[in-house]
Amino acid sequence: ELEERIKELEQKIDEQEKEDPRLDDKIEEVEKDFQDQLESFESKIDEIEKENELKGLKERIESLEDEIDEDSDLEGKVDNLEIRLDDVTERDFQDEIESIEEKIGGLEDKLEENGSDNLEDRVSELEDRGFDDLLIKVENIESQVEDIEKSKDTEEFKDLKEQVNELRGVVSDFKWLFNDFDDLAQLKLLSKDEFKNLKEEKSGDTDQVKERISRLEEKISEVESHVKNRDKVDESDFKALIDEVENQDDQIDEIREGYVELGEMMQLVLEELKN
Fold it and tell me: Is the dihedral angle over the CA atoms 178, 191, 107, 101 positive or is it negative?
């Protein structure tokens, strides 16, 4: 609009100049006034713009101040929450720890009570039996071998084979008991002294059984040599019998190895207890 007005004024001025050349002075005055008004107008516009900018800055500053206040309040709330969380966490953990300690104490007491009773029962059972069943079986086989030596009747080797199988069952029973001692050792219910006494008491019996089985094997070998040339002799029966006896010998070795492993485990348990 301002440009259009300027153009209109310029046109009027041109027309008036054509009509009256004396209008130059008036035109200059008009231009000067117009220029002054224009400068005044531009100045007011600048002031208005500055005022608007200042107003916007003030509003922005006020907004930032509000945000700072909100952040301060939020920090305070966070601090309070952290303090409360620390209190709650510490209290809950302490209660939980005490509860767990009580449960562990109860379990230890129960394990100690039941484990001691169980250990005493097993040791009593082992002491009562004391390889008696095994020795009886060995003696029966020895008697059978002596009868075979006298009669040279190979048919009785079948019965002897059944007796050897029964002997294997007795050895397996003792091996099962030693596995239970191994479990008790893992629960720290078998002391070093108890293990030592048990080992000393039963290792001698194991050696005795092994020696008697060795003698039994020798006698069977003698019988085999006596009847080897007889037509009635079934060589496979002798071989099966010898294999069974050797198998029992291996099982006795396994029992002794079980003692060794149990001793090593007890040493580890004692080291852990010392630490």
Answer: negative
